[in-house]
């Protein structure tokens, strides 16, 4: 087992996931080779499918262990005097960003726009009209983005302060 900061564990987890994908790709490449009947297929590969599978299995076990350590830290670690754990802070930031994006779209709408190709029965051009306060939603988007950024900064700080065993 090794001790590292939570931020380093997150980076390690991402690297392990990429390593596994590379090993899987390599295994696919060496699984079948095209040769002449008199040639030996092992002359054309540097690692066997079994060797690569062992590496994939080991990397997967390591990935699971690192992921478990991250999850335990996310649920167990809280800021000094704080009530929410890291997982809750991350989830709140994600939800705030999602709603900020939706509110931003509402905040960019034109309050009154001609409807393209839309004509009423009398030949008058139809108009799309906003039924809400556009500026209110633009402000809501900014507020939620600011809150999400503040939460992300808190999570980053906790990631650098929290030590995990992986």
Tag the structure with descriptive keywords:
166 residues; mainly alpha; two-stranded antiparallel sheet; flat; 4 helices
Outline:
With about 170 residues, the chain is mainly alpha-helical. It has helices at about 5-30, 50-75, 85-105, 135-160; strands at about 5, 110-120, 125-130, 165.
Biggest sheet strand order reads: 1-4
Number of domains: 2
Q: SSE string, helix = H, strand = E?
A: EHHHEEHE
Distance between the termini: 5 Å
Low-confidence stretches: none
The mean pLDDT is 92
Could you explain the architecture of this structure?
The mean pLDDT is 92. The protein contains 4 helices and 4 strands. Strands 1-4 form a two-stranded antiparallel sheet. It has a two-stranded antiparallel sheet with strand order 2-3. With 166 residues, it is mainly α. It is 63% helix and 11% strand. It has helices at residues 6-31, 49-76, 86-107, 134-161, and strands at 3-5, 112-119, 125-129, 163-165.
């Amino acid at each position: 087992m090794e001790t590292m900061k939570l931020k380093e564990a997150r980076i390690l987890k991402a690297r392990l996931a990429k390593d596994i994908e590379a090993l899987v790709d390599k295994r696919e490449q060496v699984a079948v080779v095209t040769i002449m009947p008199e040639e030996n297929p092992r002359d054309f590969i540097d690692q066997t499918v079994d060797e690569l599978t062992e590496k994939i299995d080991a990397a997967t076990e390591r990935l699971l262990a690192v992921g478990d350590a991250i999850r335990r830290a996310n649920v167990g670690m809280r800021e000094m005097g704080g009530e929410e754990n890291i997982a809750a802070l991350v989830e709140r930031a994600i939800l705030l960003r999602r709603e900020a994006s939706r509110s931003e779209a509402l905040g960019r709408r034109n309050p009154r726009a001609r409807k393209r190709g839309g004509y009423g029965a009398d030949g008058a051009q139809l108009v799309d009209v906003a039924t809400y306060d556009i500026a209110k939603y633009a402000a809501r988007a900014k507020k939620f983005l600011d809150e999400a950024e503040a939460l992300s900064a808190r999570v980053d700080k906790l990631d650098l302060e929290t030590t995990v065993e992986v």
